[in-house]
Amino acid sequence: MSRTLTMTDAEPPAGELAPREREALRHIAAGRTYLQTARHMGVSRHTVDAYLRRIRAKLNAHTTADLTRLAVTLGL
């Protein structure tokens, strides 16, 4: 059973994120662009976009601010 995260949940289900998704989330939350993140991770900008779309779907995050809050909550 999949759990949908709302921004009022105390702890997001961090275990649902793959290691590369967590890494992309950390970079975006640090203020890096998709291109900067892609270069640092050694992937294309489109791959970073795919990671972030998956994160948004898994954790029900709709904005970059939501992603940043999640990253802080996860300690990334």
Treating each run of at least 4 consecutive H or I residues as one helix, how many helices?
Answer: 4
C-alpha end-to-end distance: 26 Å
Major sheet: none
What characteristic shape results from the CA principal axes?
Answer: globular
- Determine the structural class based on helices, strands and strand pairing: mainly alpha
Give the secondary structure arrangement, pairings included.
Layout: H1 19-29, H2 34-41, H3 45-59, H4 64-74
Please provide a written account of the structure:
The structure is a single chain. Helices cover 59% and strands 0% of the residues. By secondary structure, the chain is mainly alpha-helical. α1 packs across α2 and α1 crosses α3.
Give me a quick take on this structure.
By secondary structure, the protein is an all-alpha fold. It contains 4 helices and no strands.
Features:
76 residues, mainly alpha, 4 helices
